[in-house]
Specification:
With about 240 residues, this protein is α/β, with parallel strands linked by helices. The chain has helices at about 15-25, 45-50, 65-75, 90-95, 120-140, 160-165, 180-185, 205-210, 215-230; strands at about 5-10, 30-35, 55, 80, 105-110, 110-115, 155-160, 190-195, 200-205.
């Protein structure tokens, strides 16, 4: 099974090299890495060009425009999403892909580990929350009599490519907040979105450090509920 790792990048000169080294070190034997330059004005393209990856340019700014450009350029059976500040372990792909032996599984996701958080208490509480709250909530949302979507971690997920195609790809009407919930809701209509608590992705806490933990958590919660209760669209 071939996988396509898609990495959106907007002005990521400080992080992209570490992300690419980790992505290219995967122990799976059949994968490609696609970096989508989302109108960067720094050295992102220069750095990416030094690696054996596919570089795609998307001038329309926005995470979903970048994800969609990467999806369209991908040749894999599975789209593996990570961000430019992520550092996957070498077995990240192989551990995720094994779940697709079950045809009912359309997507696999798992927790973020904010490895560079200045507050250890935040790092640990976030992991515990994702492990013991996110998983049961995702299971409940997918119960037949609820059918409300699922929980999907935006920079730590694998999705069957043909399922994304069925859902008309990513929703480019969204700029950032709620994009993972919207995607989860779309793909969950075609099968099971598995939240694996041991499928962990190391990522940066830089957004929390910049915007404040409480402020950002409230934003994420607001947009999660907003999209969970949003009515089904024809393209979904």
């Amino acid at each position: 099974m071939k996988a396509s790792i898609v990495i959106p990048a907007y002005n990521e000169e400080a992080s992209i090299e570490h992300a690419l080294r980790a992505a290219l070190a995967q122990d799976h034997d059949d994968f490609e890495v696609i970096v989508v330059n989302n109108a960067s004005a720094d050295r992102t393209v220069e750095i990416v060009s030094q690696f054996p990856v596919k570089l795609v340019h998307e001038s329309r700014k926005g995470l979903l425009w970048a994800r969609e450009a990467g999806r369209k350029a991908a040749q894999g059976d599975v789209i593996a999403n990570m961000d430019a500040d992520c550092r996957p372990q070498p077995d990240w792909l192989s551990r995720g892909l094994k779940h697709f032996n079950d045809e009912r599984i359309v997507a696999v996701t798992g927790p973020y580990d904010y490895h560079d958080a200045t507050r250890r208490s935040f790092r640990m509480s976030s992991l515990l929350t994702q492990r013991y709250i996110y998983k049961p909530v995702s299971v409940i949302l997918q119960l037949p009599f609820i059918n409300g979507g699922a929980i999907l971690i935006g920079g730590n997920n694998l999705i069957r490519a043909h399922i994304l195609e069925k859902t008309s790809g990513y929703n480019t009407d969204l700029a950032f907040y709620g994009e993972d919930t919207d995607t989860a809701k779309r793909v969950a209509r075609h099968g099971t979105v598995l939240f694996n608590t041991s499928f962990i992705m190391k990522t940066s806490a830089r957004r929390y450090e910049r915007e404040g933990i409480l402020n950002l958590q409230m934003k994420y919660l607001f947009h999660f509920f907003k999209h969970i209760f949003k009515k089904k669209t024809a393209s979904a």
